[in-house]
Amino acid sequence: MNKIFVTKSFLPPKNEYLEFVDKIWDNGQLTNQGILLQELEQKLKVFLQVENLHYVTNGTIAIQLAFKALGIESGEIITTPFSYVATTSSILWERCTPIFVDIEPNNYCIDPDKIEALINKKTKAILAVHVFGYPCNVIKIEEIAKKYNLKVIYDSAHAFGSSYLGKSLLSYGDISTVSFHATKLFHTVEGGACIVNDKNISNNLDLIKRFGHNADEHVMLGINGKQSEFHAAMGLANFPYISQLINIRKRISEHYDALLDKRLMNPLKHNELEYNYAYYPVLFRSESELLNVFTALNKQMIYPRRYFYPSLNKLQYLKNDIKCPISEDISLRIACLPLYTDLTHDNVDLICQIINGNLLH
Ligand SMILES: *Cc1c(COP(=O)(O)O)cnc(C)c1O
User: Fold this and answer.
1) According to CATH, what is the number of the domain 242-357?
2) Mean pLDDT, to the nearest integer, of 114-141?
3) What residues form the catalytic site here (predicted)?
């Protein structure tokens, strides 16, 4: 029997990838804003309906570039404890202090009503996450940011393909960052992007991602965040499949919805959201129930993942000790079920049967 992991990368037909690779041989340019990269950036801008987009090495460097481009070099960053570790590690790597605000229990995103109490003179920005592709309360966050003159960065690693209030979720905030890692819905093997609202900040970011210099004129401190033509080729080969991928994931998600025990039904719902079906999270009623189900699934070589565990405010290398009871509780009980394009109907039947049969009480 084949192992079933939480995700499996989509691969385009090989010949379609190789057609783009042929162009690399024709041009002889392997990296440094080559023509395939420019073509991918252009396609992504049109797809997302955004003005400024920079395709970069990965979704983590994208967050760090956002800090640099916004001139944030120290101070406190209001952020969420319920995310992948890169959200918090980016803050620390940029020598800032993460200030964790607890999440909303029904969408797992930062709770905007708890932000203001933690703002002080040292606060520079809000770094929030559209968890599993569901929107943060972008309206309230923007209001708070305006009131206190804070920057807003969205780690939109999960949000590619989701639209909210009629526009891409990636169009909100001063800068929105996305990951195109192999495990994400749309991928370029490794990769990421920064979507920047202000043209000047966008120009800064463009310079910073390529060592901060124009020819011999060294303008600012930079780093190497450039992406290669081979990665852009994978992006271009995957690009035509985006809506097909989302549709297949939608079908699989609806199959889970129909079969899973209703006591596990996901609370996530939103009228104004056009969802990308990036993940299928399930909230168990206790950690012991989750572990019981995991043991049963693992016996059948099915491996869901504990996204996200632990709650990031509990990372052992953090100095401050901030309590986030909702995030800590949900982190203990939540998991993402397998969701990828060639997951079969029968696979989902089996997974649901095992889960439903191994719930406690
Ligand atoms: C995947 C992910 C990242 C990091 O992206 P990489 O491209 O792997 O560096 C950051 N934040 C979140 C929420 C993620 O899921």
Assistant:
1) 3.90.1150.10
2) 97
3) 184
